[in-house]
Write a structure and sequence with these properties.
Shape: elongated
Number of domains: 2
Order of helices and strands: EEEEEEEHEEEHEEEHEEHE
Number of helices: 4
Radius of gyration: 19 Å
Strand content: 25-35%
Structural class: alpha+beta
Number of strands: 16
Strand order of the largest sheet: 2-3-8-5-7-4
Largest sheet: 6 strands, mixed
């Protein structure tokens, strides 16, 4: 798929240069857009929403592709959606992907950290739940959960997808809820080992909503 009329877009808070374009040349047979997160049903975009209200979605190129300020037209057949899953879903549902604006970024510029989550049950109840599910206290930042200055890991979890499946059960039961801003961590928050940019390439299942705080973002 070809992206035309490309212009520089500076993500000022992150000092990262992106490249603004649009999906006017969209053909689903010519480009594969890889998603990584489920959407939140109650936050679905309502029908008849005007696309002019949408901020551009943010997508990464794959590691073998590079874009720079000298590029006017750019072609690729695969992208990773970083920010804009609800807008992408709505555009596909209404057969309107060609109306989306987008910002392309290079893979090397991706940074990922975990959302912080608020605990909705008593601390002792949550700690007992972790023990029941096979988690153990550990002394370093292994694959697992950080809460109250303590790290918990499940020896039965062989990869980050298994950890995030457990995270989904906690979200679905409303044991935890995401904090929807870039808050500073406190002992009252918990967090999960973040995925890495390379994980975006290989994870085959969608992660639960609000699993990744990815930058650059608008």
């Amino acid at each position: 798929m070809k992206f035309s009329n490309i212009r520089e877009y500076l993500f000022t808070p992150y000092n990262v240069m992106g490249y603004l374009s649009d999906f006017s040349n969209f053909d689903e047979s010519l480009v594969d857009v890889k998603l990584h997160e489920e959407t939140i049903l109650k936050n679905e975009i309502q029908d008849d929403t005007n696309f002019s209200q949408f901020e551009p979605i943010v997508l990464s190129l794959y590691p073998d592709k590079k874009i720079n300020s000298k590029v006017i037209n750019f072609e690729t057949d695969e992208l990773i959606l970083l920010d804009g899953h609800h807008r992408w879903k709505y555009a596909n549902r209404t057969d309107s992907v060609n109306k989306l604006k987008c910002i392309l970024v290079n893979f090397d510029d991706i940074k990922i950290k975990s959302y912080f989550f608020r605990l909705n049950v008593k601390k002792e109840e949550f700690e007992n739940l972790l023990i029941q599910e096979g988690f153990e206290e550990i002394e370093n930042k292994s694959l697992g959960i950080k809460f109250n200055d303590t790290y918990y890991s499940n020896p039965n979890h062989e990869n980050i997808s298994q950890l995030y499946k457990f995270k989904k059960t906690l979200q679905d039961s409303e044991t935890i809820t995401p904090i929807l801003d870039d808050s500073e961590e406190t002992n009252d928050f918990l967090s999960f080992t973040p995925i890495t940019p390379n994980d975006l390439l290989y994870i085959s299942e969608l992660l639960p909503p609000k699993s990744t705080w990815i930058t650059p973002r608008i």
